[in-house]
Amino acid sequence: MNDDIMKILGIESSCDDTAAAVISNKLLLSNIIAGQQVHKDYGGVVPELASRAHQQNIVPVVDAALKKAGIQKEGLDAIAFTRGPGLMGSLLVGASFAKAMSLALEIPLIEVNHLQAHILAHFIQSPGEEYRCPSFPFLCLTVSGGHTQIVLVKSHLQMEVIGQTHDDAAGEAFDKAAKIMGLPYPGGPLIDKYAKRGVTTTFKFPTPHAPGFDFSFSGIKTSFLYLVRDETKKDPEFVRKRQNDLCASFQKSIVTILIDKLTLAAESTGIKEIAIAGGVSANSGLRSALQVSAEKLGWNIFIPKMEFCTDNAAMIAITGYYKFLAKEFADSDITPVAKYPF
Q1: Helix axis angle, 170-180 to 218-234, nearest 10°
Q2: For the whole model, what pTM was predicted?
Q3: Is residue 22 within 8 Å of residue 80, measured between CB atoms?
């Protein structure tokens, strides 16, 4: 290995996206993602179908990542992979491939926490773009289909969850609301799309009472279900007629909950370095609300590029880079885990 240049292959397979990326130190050389369209027919991810698709995709995806990066597999210095959290069948495919490749090339293996990687995506340097990253300590609101957390980030590898959801994640609430309205999977991006055409004050939803910096979204989801059920009894065309306003009002309520808790955490800790991460960080309502709060409260905010919001391997590779520097390597007998807290 060159003392100055470190090339890391990252592999991500926690859910329904098979991804591979190569970084040279912090500079991204390639980031390849293969999605799985089969789940749209079922209204959600089917674990068995996901794992089968990963088996089909992983070899061509890794090959494409290496070719785009312009390096041979022998030029890699380490392989990082998602250990968890995620779907066990999906994780097993990525973990098995990473372990086999690591053994064959006789290079270090690095296991990565998927949630930690979402946060460290802010440290990826994209070619030809200005490099801007948060200073420590900073707060990161990590929001996805499976998790909603406020994380106190003390260093690249030292993080503490100071707030989290008691039930549904924010992304899960978006997807369930979309399903209630009969929208196809994944529904979160569609709610964001239709919300731009609606009025945010049309419908009111209850504000959950979760302690401290914690969240709860089950109540607002249930309230949405009852509203649609009751109004549809009166008018079967209710959802079609009021879809935009329903999306705008629901999205506004979710975003308000997220920003209010993040504001409380920032005030309590005195930290003004604020970031967001995870799939829901792509939501335009959340991005706009964060910018408004930044101007009002003097925050220095960090919003990830769209390609780093959803599951990707670049974030796995950058986490692998920092763990390589810390010499945090994994043994070949390591196994994936469905639940993987910090």
Answers
A1: 10
A2: 0.94
A3: no
- The long-range contacts involving 192-195, CB below 8 angstroms and separated by at least 24 positions, are 192/247, 192/251, 192/282, 192/283, 192/284, 192/285, 193/247, 194/243, 194/244, 194/247, 194/248, 195/244, 195/247, 195/248, 195/250, 195/251, 195/252, 195/284, 195/285
CB atoms within 10 A of CB 120: 28
Both structure tokens of 246 = 């329903």
The domains found in the chain, sorted by start residue, are 7-126+309-325 (3.30.420.40), 138-304 (3.30.420.40)
Could you list the mean pLDDT of each consecutive 10-residue stretch along the chain, which spans 342 residues?
Answer: 79 92 97 71 66 88 97 97 95 96 97 97 94 96 92 98 94 94 90 97 92 94 96 97 98 97 98 96 97 98 94 97 97 94 80
Q: Which residue has the tokens 């089969």?
A: 38
Distances (CA, A) of 225 to 157, 173, 246: 40, 11, 11
Please provide the DSSP assignment of 229-281 as one string.
HHHHHH-TTHHHHHHHHHHHHHHHHHHHHHHHHHHHHHHHHT--EEEEESGGG
Nearest one of 10, 33, 4, 77 to 309, comparing CA atoms: 33
Closest CA to 195 of 256, 253, 249, 237: 249
For residue 29, which of 11, 12, 7 has the smallest C-alpha distance?
Answer: 7
